[in-house]
Write a structure and sequence with these properties.
With about 130 residues, this protein is α/β, with parallel strands linked by helices. It has helices at about 5, 60-70, 95-105, and strands spanning about 15, 25, 45-55, 75-80, 85-90, 110-120, 130. The protein has 3 helices and 7 strands, in the order H-E-E-E-H-E-E-H-E-E.
């Protein structure tokens, strides 16, 4: 399934309205491997998320780490030079979806204006969850 399937064929940057975002949007990306990495709740998945808005210097990476560990996910959260935060999480697809919902929902530190996601098959080799 690709973003074209989710957002009516508007391409990789198509956006969906985001429930808890402060006037922002959620967009999706390609699922690799011909399968639906986000579809089976117990299947392992890799979720990459780019969070935009006023998201640096507000404790977001620490908050993401705490939520990810509570959900049993491994990965990282890092500040990017363009002001976004990049999150990579691996674990059960259902738990990754929970993290994604938390990132786009109310209560997220800072002011999130856009959440972009990409689903892939897990690569493995990650232990713990780090802030960079």
């Amino acid at each position: 399934m690709s973003i074209d399937d989710v957002a009516g064929g508007q391409g990789p940057e198509a956006s969906l309205s985001g429930g808890g975002l402060a006037g922002g949007e959620v967009s999706g990306g390609e699922v690799s491997g011909g399968g639906d990495a986000a579809g089976d709740g117990d299947a392992p998945a890799r979720l990459t998320v780019w969070v935009a808005g006023q998201v640096q210097g507000v404790g977001l990476r620490w908050w993401i780490r705490a939520r990810a560990l509570e959900l049993g996910l491994v990965g990282s959260a890092e500040n990017l030079e363009d002001g976004r935060v990049k999150v990579v999480a691996e674990g059960a697809a259902a738990r990754c979806r929970e993290l994604l919902a938390l990132l786009a929902g109310p209560g997220t530190p800072g002011r999130v204006s856009r959440v972009t996601q990409r689903w892939d098959d897990p690569r493995g080799g990650i232990t713990g969850f780090t802030e960079r």
